[in-house]
Write a structure and sequence with these properties.
704 residues, alpha/beta, 7-stranded mixed sheet, 6-stranded mixed sheet, 23 helices, 19% strand, binds iron/sulfur cluster
Length: 704
């Protein structure tokens, strides 16, 4: 029986249950899986984040367990036909090991790269980082979390000295008198979170949303600011300008708990509300009302998400909101603070344990000699044998198959053919590789290009841990064994490491891997040393840092000090700059991307779930009625959105929910409807996060 599953018996019918969490987003809603007579049903489970709620994605998650398109045998590309064909595990793994050896012998260790995902468990993210550094000894590893949270992570580290998405439990939202959501649409991305917003409203709280679209969340707000995409930073600086002018600065907090405020004061002095109104389109009165709601509230929380982050100036944009929060004395105060809403299921844990290019487990830096010594000691290898930092995801993918780039790539839990910016270019880079390996449980668009596809277990078939958007470490519990022919990612890594004559063993049991992870993370910023599976069970999850199994965990950070050398948070002055690509006569419209309620990320999973396909069958292009009239486009008519990099085709959805100068498309679809054929590959210079949220396009009627 799998760890954690409980077998019960109904008269005549064998039944088993597992108390686990949803496979999708970072809310990690509690759910119980019940299998009766081979049929698996999802039951919502009370957990502090979802309070018994699930969205449609969670309700339908079990459909993929027995999906007809489920991969249950390895596939290898036949050189004679150039087609993928079924193969044995031995053949597939031999081919991978031989391919890696050939590439590394001819081109060096860094000629092999690894690409991970923010949905992998902590154990897998950790094992993947170790595999890259110890078995492959390549510096080239990064992951798709670079697309999602990396700008907020970088801004958090430079301001607070640590990156934990929410430095407080989600339930604190209900206690905030004023809640400001920036570029976040939880009503569609994580609906059960709205229960916390309802709490806040019931207590008389105000909700303010900043978003270029009238989203389902914005419709619930007391005040909605609808800026031009790419101007959030200026809006934040204007809010701070007003707060200072009105005398809402928390002087004692700034003096006692922060450094660097004077430079920020000088910078925001130039952000006159009237000028920011001209730049962003947000009326001065709304800027003033927002600043007042934040500056005069007894408690206030500012949350940012992808709308603020996915820009070539994403780190600075988040920093502008962090500056605002610090000036008002919010971080570390009960019911107040700044936080980032993490997106992917293990977006938080996935960025803590070594699958980032510059990082070792425990959120340690790979170029820190003490960190290298510690982690190498846990791994049983000399520190000098560990490679140095690699490059962020887009740079890595864009270098594949080029004279100076890797010639082989192993992909775990990611689908960059759909999710990468400027995706056609990345698709072509993947085709140029000598060896592409994809481990997945469905044949994603990236798997379809692979030389070897490995069928791996999915969430209800393996144990492990996830770390949710609050920094709370949770148990993922298996309901059943994987189907015949399917192996876990950990087993794949262990087998490959052995075939590559890795100097140390790679355990394949998740509990053993987690025990090793705890030791590797000990003493690091994300310290899991005191987190045990038993403790997670007993305490409804454990918040990191938790250095001591017998000591407390840390639901709230920053109460007394920040984890910086002097214990103070750091202001950084930031200034507005235009998007990397501005509109022009040929491309006169702004293009922005996002998600819809019934689909998730690249859609590999949710596009195959029947109820979700019915709810959101196809992509669309959202256009304002004024723009549609000017272009002569009717609702439902096929349109082309064209940028300098490519185009997408989808039906028009004419709606007043979008600005007349901006068009929107969701990014969950592939092929002609792939939004990332259009997006810009400009990246933030600090975080490496791409500018998914704005580029210049034109829109045309397309032939049906
Ligand atoms: S909100 Fe997120 S975690 Fe909860 S059910 Fe939906 S997708 Fe799953």
């Amino acid at each position: 029986m799998t760890d954690g599953a409980r077998v019960a018996t109904r008269p005549g019918v064998a039944s088993r249950e597992a108390a686990t969490h949803c496979p999708y987003c970072a809310l990690q809603c509690g759910m119980t899986l019940r299998e009766t007579g081979g049929r698996v049903e999802v039951l919502p489970r009370q957990f502090p984040t979802n309070r018994g709620g699930l969205c449609q994605k969670g309700w339908t998650a079990a459909e993929l367990l027995d999906h007809p398109e489920r991969l249950t045998t390895p596939l290898v590309r036949d050189p004679a036909t150039d087609e993928q064909r079924p193969a044995s595990w031995a053949e597939a793994l031999d081919r991978i090991a031989a391919g890696i050896r050939t590439v590394q012998t001819g081109h060096g260790r860094d000629a092999v790269a690894v690409f991970g995902g923010g949905g992998l468990t902590n154990e897998k993210a950790y094992a993947l980082g170790k595999f890259a550094r110890v078995a492959l000894r390549t510096r080239h590893i990064d992951y798709n979390g670079r697309w999602c949270m990396s700008s907020a992570a970088a801004a958090g580290i430079r301001a607070f000295g640590v990156d934990r998405g929410l430095p407080f439990p989600l339930a604190d939202l209900g206690r905030a008198e004023t809640l400001l959501l920036v570029g976040a649409n939880p009503a569609e991305t994580m609906p059960p979170l709205l229960r916390h917003l309802a709490d806040q409203r019931e207590r008389g709280g105000r909700l303010i949303v900043i978003d270029p679209r009238v989203t389902a969340t914005a419709r619930q707000a007391d005040l909605h600011l609808q800026p031009l995409p790419g101007t959030d930073l200026a809006v934040a600086n204007a809010l701070l300008h007003i707060a200072l002018t009105e005398g809402w600065l928390d002087r004692d907090y700034v003096a006692d708990r922060t450094t660097g405020f004077d430079a920020v004061r000088r910078t925001v002095a130039g952000y006159w509300p009237a000028e920011v109104e001209r730049l962003s389109g947000v009326p001065m009165a709304d800027l003033e009302a927002t600043a007042r709601a934040l500056g005069t509230a007894g408690s206030a929380i500012i949350l940012t998400a992808r709308g603020a982050e996915q820009h070539a100036k994403g780190v600075d944009t988040v920093t502008a909101f962090v500056n605002l929060a610090l000036a008002l004395g919010l971080p570390g105060r009960p019911g107040s603070g700044y936080g980032c809403l993490t997106g992917q299921g293990n977006g938080q844990g996935g960025r803590e344990h070594g699958q980032k290019a510059d990082q070792l487990p425990g959120y340690r830096k790979i170029d820190d000699p003490a960190a290298r010594e510690h982690v190498a000691g846990v791994w049983g290898v000399p520190a000098d044998d560990l490679p140095g930092p690699g490059v962020p995801a887009y740079r890595l993918l864009d270098s594949l198959g080029t004279p100076d780039g890797p010639r082989a790539l192993l992909v775990f839990g990611s689908n960059p053919v759909v999710s990468a910016p400027r995706a056609a270019r990345i698709e072509s880079r993947l085709r140029d590789l000598d060896l592409l390996v994809v481990a997945d449980f469905l044949r994603s668009e990236t798997a379809a290009l692979a030389d070897v596809v490995l069928p791996v277990a999915q969430w209800a078939e393996e144990d492990g841990t996830m770390t949710n958007l609050e920094g709370r470490v949770l148990r993922r519990r298996a309901l059943r064994e994987p189907p015949p022919g399917v192996r876990t990612d950990l087993a794949v890594l262990a087998d490959l490491a052995a075939r590559l004559d890795a100097p140390v063993d790679f355990p394949s049991e998740p509990r053993t891997v987690f025990t090793e992870l705890r030791r590797a993370s000990a003493g690091g910023p994300a310290d899991y040393a005191g987190v045990t599976w038993e403790r997670i069970d007993a305490e409804t999850g454990v918040f990191w840092p938790c250095p001591d199994p017998d000591g407390p965990d840390t639901p709230r950070l920053f109460a007394d000090r920040f984890p910086t050398p002097d214990g103070r948070a750091r202001f950084h002055p930031v200034t507005h700059r235009p998007a990397a690509e501005e509109v022009c006569a040929e491309y006169p419209l702004h293009f922005t991307t996002g998600r819809v309620l019934a689909q998730y990320q690249s859609g590999t999973q949710t596009r195959r779930v029947s109820a979700l396909r019915r709810a959101a069958p196809d992509a669309f292009v959202e256009l304002h009625p004024d723009l549609a009239a000017r272009l002569g486009i009717d609702d439902g008519e096929p349109v082309r959105v064209v940028s300098r990099r490519g185009e997408l085709r989808a039906p028009a959805r004419v709606s007043t929910t979008i600005r007349p100068d901006t068009v929107f498309a969701p990014f969950h679809w592939a092929g002609a409807a792939r939004a990332n054929s259009v997006t810009n590959d400009a990246v933030d210079p600090v975080s490496g996060m791409p500018e998914f949220k704005i580029c210049a396009v034109r829109v045309e009627r397309a032939e049906p």
